[in-house]
Design a protein that fits this description.
By secondary structure, the chain is of the alpha/beta class. The protein has 14 helices and twelve strands. It has two domains: 23-278, Type I PLP-dependent aspartate aminotransferase-like (Major domain) (Aspartate Aminotransferase, domain 2, 3-Layer(aba) Sandwich), CATH 3.40.640; 283-384, Aspartate Aminotransferase, domain 1 (Alpha-Beta Complex), CATH 3.90.1150. The strands form three sheets. The chain has a seven-stranded mixed beta sheet with strand order 2-8-7-6-5-3-4, with helices on both faces. α7 links the parallel β5 (144-150) and β6.
Length: 385
């Protein structure tokens, strides 16, 4: 069903995902079709094909397709918005201390050049979901221009409750950008109900699409604000006369600006409906429930081994959970788990605490959870000795 190495215990779906064989076949068919006549495919058919794909994705996300655009990854989505917002010296970007490092870098880059300030709010562990929104909002000032928050934290796997913050921000005239890199296919989404100004997410992680498929959702009032990372034909008043490119005029300003950025392989985008169909065929709601239960059981089993406490309640994570482990060299632990036990799993740190970040996807088994528990029990027994 999946193409993973059978000799590997793959507990790291959260990093780059894994694509089912039948979805990969769809992806490769699109690539081959493109090569039969690239001008026909890219120049005359791609706009309609992408629109059809976005319509399927929009239904899954609880969104309107005209507010969606495909991008290669969620980091590109964060960059697109961060570099489109016109910041002034003294403006503040309010965030948490649980954000993805690459996106932290994006905002720091933008702030250095604009004179704005990137303001992380400490979210203490153990996590208290009921206090999260107020803890963030208490740091809002008259200078706050943007709230930038993860939907699911990459480092700690925590699901942040965001609807209340999005509502308050909209009432206060503060923009919201949500990094949903881990959310699609992982937790239920209704982007229209959430009400964020900008939401970016990956399809190639938990939705199981091919690598390089992500999206940016933009509230209609902000379409004109968003600039493409590559300025191309979408910025022309008309592109008539450029044979083969008429399809790229697009139906909305957002689509015209961001869809055509030069020649690129759009097969991953066109394969997103196949990934959605794959999960529907295999009753993925039930699969997600089973994976969450397995993740929670493994968390408590390992905490019993290490005598460390979980950093959250079971309802605060889904299929990806940060399991605390005693201090040791993080890179050594990661390398040893892979080299000695053939377990692919990330080792993360936050607030001076060390974690193994367990991702449980439909292909994982209880025997693999046993293998992780046995490996860590052995490693820490050796360390204690």
């Amino acid at each position: 069903m999946f193409l993973l190495d059978p000799d590997l215990i793959f507990l790291n779906h959260g990093s780059f995902g894994a694509c089912p064989a039948q979805v990969m076949q769809t992806y490769q068919r699109w690539q081959m079709e493109m090569e039969r006549n690239p001008v026909e495919f890219l120049g005359r058919r791609s706009a309609a094909l992408l629109a059809q794909s976005r319509a399927v994705l929009a239904k899954t996300l609880g969104a309107d397709p005209e507010n969606l655009i495909y991008l290669p990854n969620a980091t590109t989505g964060v960059n697109t918005v961060a570099r489109s917002v016109h910041l002034q010296p003294g403006d503040e970007i309010l965030t948490s201390d649980h954000e993805y490092g690459a996106c932290d870098n994006t905002w720091k880059f933008v702030c250095e050049r604009s004179g704005a300030n990137y303001v992380p709010v400490e979210i203490p562990l153990p996590f208290n979901a009921a206090e999260f929104a107020q803890r963030i909002w208490d740091r809002v000032t008259p200078r706050t221009r943007v709230l930038f928050l993860s939907h699911i934290s990459s480092t700690t796997g925590l699901i942040f409750p965001l609807a209340e913050l999005c509502r308050r921000a909209r009432e206060a005239g503060i923009l919201t950008l949500i990094d949903g890199a881990h959310a699609p296919g992982h937790i239920p989404l209704d982007l229209n109900a959430l009400g964020a100004d900008f939401y970016t997410g990956n399809c190639h992680k938990w939705l199981c699409a091919p690598k390089g498929a992500a999206f940016l959702h933009v509230h209609p009032q902000h379409h004109a604000l968003v600039d493409a990372g590559v300025i191309s034909w979408g910025y022309s008043a008309t592109i008539s006369g450029h044979t083969g490119f008429d399809a790229y005029t697009g139906s909305t300003l957002l689509e015209r600006r961001l869809q055509w950025q030069g020649t690129r392989d759009i097969a991953a985008y066109l394969s997103v409906p196949a990934a959605i169909e794959f999960q529907a065929q295999h009753d993925w709601d039930r699969v997600r429930q089973r994976c969450h239960a397995m993740a929670a059981q493994t968390l408590h089993r390992l905490c019993a081994i290490t005598s460390l406490q979980p950093i959250s309640q079971d309802d605060d994570f889904a299929q990806m959970v940060a399991i605390p482990v005693p201090p040791m060299d993080a890179q050594l632990l990661k390398d040893t788990l892979l080299a000695r036990y053939r377990i692919e799993i990330p080792v993360t740190s936050h607030q001076d605490r060390l974690f193994v970040r367990l991702s449980v996807q439909g292909y994982n088994t209880s025997e693999e959870m046993d293998a992780l528990a046995d490996a860590l029990r052995e490693l820490y027994s050796v360390q204690d000795n």
